[in-house]
Amino acid sequence: MKKLMFAAVAAASLVPAAAFAQDTTTDGSRPFGIDPYVGVMGGYEGFESDPGHGIPFSPPGNRLKGGLVDGVAGVNVPLGSFFVGVEGNAAKGFSGDIDWEYGVHGRAGVRAGESGLFYGKVGYRWVNFDRYGKDSGDFGRISYGIGGEFGPKSIGLDGLVKKEGVRFRAEISTTGDFETVRPMAGIVGHF
């Protein structure tokens, strides 16, 4: 039921954005073709601590969490007002219980305004925890989320960055049956 509700909210958030989607952009991306990108993001992830949920080898009441620095690289394929793509990521924990995270996700969404994107994503993420040592193995589950990107021109900062391919990104994702909360924000450069 939670997955169905999450999918409905994600789909509903894309509908208004489609009304503003354009076939051409001024941020350096093309209406059709291939749009590669790289970026860096920061955020936090907290894992569920209830018995039967979360990390299988974590005792009940032991909430694993931590701050992350995340590198992303991917490619979008613009299809007029829409796009599809694939993205890989690797994150390093800088505080808390997370040592490393890595994953791959498919993305699909709409292009909005001159430099905006609204998307949903689904894929697989693996996590390694400091608390259980380097030999504890990686915890992996299906991961999904929603997010958006917008260029500096969209918020009145067009003089700040000369290269229009730079966008700000914000997203929130989760793992498994809402076993985690992972808000992230950062900068992505499209070329």
Q: Can you describe what's shown?
A:
A hairpin with a 1-residue loop joins strand 3 (82-96) and strand 4. Strands 1-2-3-4-5-6-7-8 form an 8-stranded antiparallel barrel. It has one domain (2-190): Beta Barrel (Porin). It is elongated and about 50 Å long. It contains 1 helix and 8 strands. With 191 residues, the protein is mostly beta strands. Mean pLDDT is 77; it is low at 1-29 and 159-163.
In short:
The chain is elongated, with a radius of gyration of 17 Å. Helices cover 10% and strands 55% of the residues.
Describe the secondary-structure layout.
Layout: H1 2-20, E1 35-47, E2 65-79, E3 82-96, E4 98-112, E5 116-129, E6 139-150, E7 166-175, E8 180-190
Antiparallel strand pairs: 1-2, 1-8, 2-3, 3-4, 4-5, 5-6, 6-7, 7-8
